Amino acid sequence: xxxxxxxxxxxxxxGGGTAVSGPDSCLGYDALHRAGLRAAEWxxxxxxxxxRPRIGLAARNSTAxxxxxxxxxxxxxxxxxxxxxxxxxxxERISExxxxxxxxxxxxxxxxxxxxxxxxxxxxRYTAGRRHPLxxxxxxxxxxSGTTGKPNCLEFSxxxxxxxxxxxxxxxxxxxxxxxxxxxxxxxxxxFNTSLLAAFLVxxxxxxxxxxxxxGRIRRLVAGSRATRLVAFPALYDSFVRTGGGxxxxxxxxxxxxxxxPLRPETKERFxxxxxxxxxxxxxxxEAGPLTYSTSTAAESLGRPLPGVDIQTRGxxxxxxxxxVRSASMATRYLNAPGLLESRIDDAGRYATGDxxxxxxxxxxxxGRSHRMINVGGRKxxxxxxxEAVGAVPGVEQAVVLEAPDQHGEPAVAAVLVLxxxxxxxxxxxxxxxSLADSLAAHKIPTLIRVVDALPTTVIGKPVLHELxxxxxxxxx
Amino acid sequence: xxxxxxxxxxxxxxxxxxxxxxxISVQDVxxxxxxxxxxxxxxxxxxxxxxxxxxxxxxYLDADEGGEALGTVDGIVTAVLAELxxxxx
Lengths: 477, 89
Fold this sequence. Notes:
Chain A: Keywords: Ligase. Chain A is α/β, with parallel strands linked by helices.
């Protein structure tokens, strides 16, 4: 139980200093540790199929989230960290696929939900039966959007989680003087790796935000927390730049960190011009954690590898190679897709990211991103998963889901449909939203839709994606 | 409806359409009773909308404090009018 012991050491080391604050409360290191141990007593009684209960945590950022996370670890159980925006149907599928024993959430409590911590209730999920065994070293599970029609559950050892946090803190110069304002959900790699254990390891303060990260909201949060570090997806910085920053006082902020999706060079430049704050951009992948960090003003560079990270680019073209990475924070495997992660890791332990790029004076420059998934504002969407859900909507005969630019030039989830005979396109469009709301998170539901008589296909029957993408060129509808 | 609030309403509807990812009209919004979720408004669209309202009307709407009311055209118009005070009435 590496992580439980690490958090205990943090409490011993930093005592009464402020550890975490959120919309619900503020806790010092000692108080957080005690609260975690109290929660552990409750989690220790969870009925489970084996000696390591699997506890899903699907909630927005709060101190209760952190307390629950620590409580699960101290109880010797395994937290499964799930995006708070997951739909009820997605939670159901994850619970079944990963054989969760208990699900903690912050939604309206109904049925057999039991209050556990302020704002968090639990629903027993335990069902006897076969389940994929956890790796003996696994202490935390998180999810990627997958590429196989369902979220892939990543298993992480305590050592890997600690390494990600320690290397991030060291590589970015985080200290006990830092106050980290985290606007990304803690289940997401951006927040999990850069803000949670990383802040506690050095005795920094973690300030949690949830809700829509609009420019106006962030100005107020920065002023209230006197944050030294801002952690957010590019959408927040785009928002800030769109409003011109307003009357922003960012004097306390030393760096603004962005990841999860490409940051536009003009956003980076304009944000710094408006606030005087340099932007730290990093490259990371869910399977391997944070990999590089850069505060360079050069628009293209994603920076040098963090400690413990090795990056190679492979292929005949040195300017455009396949990016392979090895890090101390690698996931062990996918719990619910045996063999898949291992198939993407070579004998030397390097993971094929699917991205392309080059190393320029030791700094990573990406030349092409993997198109396995659609990236909507930092959230990855699996087109296969969405395509299957859309294909099941009444009136839809065939569906292909792909990425297309919206009217703002941002990547959006698009769908091309072939309808069943007699179906009315207008009615199906309207039905789509209602039909998918229970099975998909809101950001996965297609916002761009085209209806065609037949899908263009290759000789082997695969959809011709470039032809489908052209349907979304400006002006066509 | 007095001219001021109607102008605000027209402006809000225009911004709702402009902030969406590209597939809706004012008629679509009205046909769904002004409920943004019903026209597939994503969180990114909603952020764009709140930014646009701040830029256009000079008012800051807090989506969390505003709760579900800010998920409809009527709710947003009411909130903008409240922030503007009597100027628009």
